[in-house]
Amino acid sequence: MKIKKNTKKYIIRAVVLIVVFILSLTLYFAWSFFNTEKEYTVYTSMEEPTLPVMYSISNGKEINCLHGYLQDMKNEANSDSIIVLPEDRKLEMRIAEYNNMVAKVSYEIRSLDLEHFIEKTDVTEIRRGNDGNTYITLPIQNLIEKDKQYLLKIQLDTGEKTVNYYTRIIWTDKNYIGQMIDLALEFTEKTFDYNAAKDLTSYLEINPNRDNSDLADVDISSSFSQITWAGTGMKLASEPKVCVREYDGIMCLIDVSYTAERMNELNKAEKYRVKDTYTMRMGSQRIYLMNFDRKTNQIFEGNKHLFTGKRILLGIADISTLQTAKSNNGRFIVFKTNNEIWSYDQKEKVAVNIFSFRSETDDGVRADFDRHDLKILSVDDSGNIDFVVYGYMNRGRHEGYNGIVYYHYSEANDTIIESFFIPIEKGFEKIKYELDELCIKGANDMLYMKQNNAIVAIDLKSLETLDIASNLEDGGYAISKDQTKIAWLDGSLYHSSKIQFMDITTGNTQSISADIDELLRIIGFSGHDLVYGRARSDDFWYLSNRIKGLPMYKLEIVDGNLNIQKEYNKEDLYIENVRIEDNRIHLKIYNKTEEPNSYRYWGEDTIICNESRKEYGIDNIASANTNDRKKIYYVSLDEEIKTTRNLKVRVPGKISYENAGRIELMRSEKSDQKLWLYAYENGRLSMVTTSLDKAIEYCYDELGFITDKNGSILYNRTDRESQSTIEGPLQKALPIIKNLETFKENKAYEDDGIVILDAQGLDLNQISYYIYQGLPVVFYTKDMHYYLIYGYDNFNIKIYDPFEENEENRASLMGKEEAESWFIDHQSDFVVAVQNKG
């Protein structure tokens, strides 16, 4: 009995120990569950993408993903891509239907300016393959010319809706696009392999003086280490997507977009959106890589380890894409990164992904389409946020539309409320360019923005619109960098005697008036101070009957109350070509010559303003240099995050469209009649102007190009050989010569099939492009005599004098150095022309 008693005691003790062990494990795992930082991705709650996308098939590769529009974009969506047709013009395409059933497909072809209708055809065969994909062939007829670009519009009928797709096409014997795509893909893939990337060194133009501290912006001049990701362990994490942006048979611009990934020090995966842009040129024997540009942005997913100390870590990012705003009480910080808006409550430790098109269910092709942007407008002390989303709408109520959506986030109701939608039949880059100039919430709940060369105010309560200024001209208005001050001429450029000045923070407008026989010119803003000039009405500067400028006898700088802060004038001297850089105003000074309305260069001067430089919109953004990723950016906080145990990361509860309105903006017919020039660098719109000299200045260093509003190329730095001669220069120049007498400003001459451009101020290298395109360049001398420049090589230029009586003496050679001096002495007074391929 004693043995049995002891055995029973041992059994009880063992059971107790087991129970204690189980309870301990349970408590441990429960503690671990509630204290382990769970990583998950949050997405804005809105309708998922629904529209099909299309791909063209080139040399066995799928390229140029086309996204669908539910509005008629005319020729405004064609700048995103171009398709090089095969010799037989049969264009193969794949349709990714995404739960749609395409019942009918048709297409039409027009000239880029929409003036000429070429073809409209129904596609008779829709093939559904065993791989679940749908394929079509567009049997483009022999009605198009070779080496000319056209607009292709494809319509898909799904039964429920008709979806439009736009691109440009070109048919050419110079079809090197397959080789160029192969080079772009090979280059991208080899950058992830240090040893394989050694094959790329012959393409690089490494600059030892270049800043190599930031992986967000890498180009052809970066170090080999930068090109190969600087030892970050970055891996290619998705199939690269190819988009051919430009092609003319010689020059090509290609985007390669993909996701990259690396493991951080916590062994957590970091994802990055990357776009490689290649500018290529086909030489006589091989392809030349003229430029390479890589933009990298870390995808901020709201993981808790990114909230640390007094920082929210954004990682590698393009600083130009970041924005922050803080409530007046300092509690709420709102930031934009990678086309998403987040809010962080420093008191309650709550982060909210206010807006993102990214989706948990979509494969990313539609939800991650990058032809949109966002801007934070305001955040109040209760955490309510106003912001706009503009460009192409990837998903949600306005999917398939281009436009602007105004949203209000209500913190109390945890709801995103749509206030209104503005449909805009313009490409994303053009919308963005003007909103980057002006888009701000001002006094009395008014939204001020620039669109269609007009400044518009929208009452956020009644949704009524007010035109503040319309028909804005290049040089006829100015907007301060923080967008709180605007000024515009009350009249046309060079003929205005009044300036209107508006303070958006108060809504007040004041005016500046000229004295008798005076005209006013707007120069720009230095901080909040307006810089403008006074000129005499008879002091115009003419070159060959064209207005070169209106030199000013005095500059004035005024503050927001129009109090004069500084004046600049010198007796018998005149001011022209003024440039504002930060708090310095650079002036070029001229005096009059003996000839009427003519000036000569005298010297330069600089005015230093009191207001110091300030970066607007990124007040709470800072950077740090790291060992593993080089420069990273973070949001700077006031309150330290000591632990993320109680940190909450979430999305708004819902989106409300209950009281959403729709606003239509008017287009300015007068402004549309002008020939606006669109300058692109690395495929991105960098300047819109009516000045060819200014447009080339903005795109030249990055080997960019210039188009008209229809997408026709008007200048391309990479598209010329080292030598060229035009046969029969006088005959080729006749369409230009016949219009010289009436030529005053850039203009397309439809009857002659050319576009004539004022090229005053260009140099020999820049005008050589136009000679290579097959039309002579007109050069005026001071006595209104003009010559034709019709050829060039490495040493000489070829000149033709149409007024020389002896025909044998009309053509001559001049050395390049002598020619440059000759041009400068006569103020580089050129007129150039290109064939109108629209």
Could you characterize the architecture of this molecule?
The protein is mainly beta. The strands form 13 sheets. Strands 52, 53, 54, 55, 56, 57, 58 and 59 form an 8-stranded antiparallel β-sheet that branches. Strands 11, 12, 13, 14, 15 and 16 form a 6-stranded antiparallel β-sheet that branches. The longest helix has 34 residues, at 2-35. The radius of gyration is 31 Å and the shape is globular. Residues 1-5 and 26-40 have low confidence and may be disordered.
Summarize the structure.
This protein has 838 residues and is mainly beta. It is built from 9 helices and 59 strands. A hairpin with a 2-residue loop joins strand 27 (446-451) and strand 28.
* Poorly predicted runs: 1-5, 26-40
The main sheet comes to: 8 strands, antiparallel
- Apparent shape: globular
Mean pLDDT: 92
Q: How many alpha or pi helices? A: 9
Percentage of β-strand residues:
35-45%
Distance between the termini: 110 Å
What Rg, in angstroms, do the CA atoms define? 31 Å
Q: Tell me how many strands there are.
A: 59
* Structural class based on helices, strands and sheet pairing: mainly beta
Please estimate the helix content.
10-25%
Task: Give the helix/strand layout.
Layout: H1 2-35, E1 53-58, E2 61-67, E3 82-84, E4 90-96, E5 104-111, E6 117-123, E7 127-128, E8 134-139, E9 149-157, E10 162-170, H2 177-190, E11 217-219, H3 224-227, E12 235-236, E13 241-247, E14 251-263, E15 269-282, E16 287-298, E17 307-315, E18 323-326, E19 332-337, E20 340-345, E21 350-355, E22 372-379, E23 385-392, E24 402-410, E25 415-423, H4 428-437, E26 439-441, E27 446-451, E28 454-459, E29 465-469, E30 477-479, E31 485-489, E32 498-503, E33 508-513, E34 518-526, E35 529-536, E36 541-543, E37 546-549, E38 554-558, E39 564-568, E40 574-581, E41 584-592, E42 599-608, E43 621-626, E44 630-641, E45 648-650, E46 654-656, E47 661-662, H5 669-672, E48 677-681, E49 684-689, H6 692-699, E50 705-707, E51 713-716, E52 724-725, H7 729-740, E53 747-749, E54 754-758, H8 764-772, E55 777-780, E56 786-792, E57 796-800, E58 811-815, H9 816-825, E59 830-835
Parallel strand pairs: 3-10, 21-45, 25-46, 25-47
Antiparallel strand pairs: 1-2, 1-4, 4-8, 5-6, 5-9, 7-8, 9-10, 11-16, 12-14, 13-14, 14-15, 15-16, 17-44, 18-19, 19-20, 20-21, 22-23, 23-24, 24-25, 26-27, 27-28, 28-29, 30-31, 31-32, 32-33, 34-35, 35-38, 36-37, 38-39, 40-41, 41-42, 43-44, 48-49, 48-50, 50-51, 52-56, 53-54, 54-59, 55-56, 55-59, ...
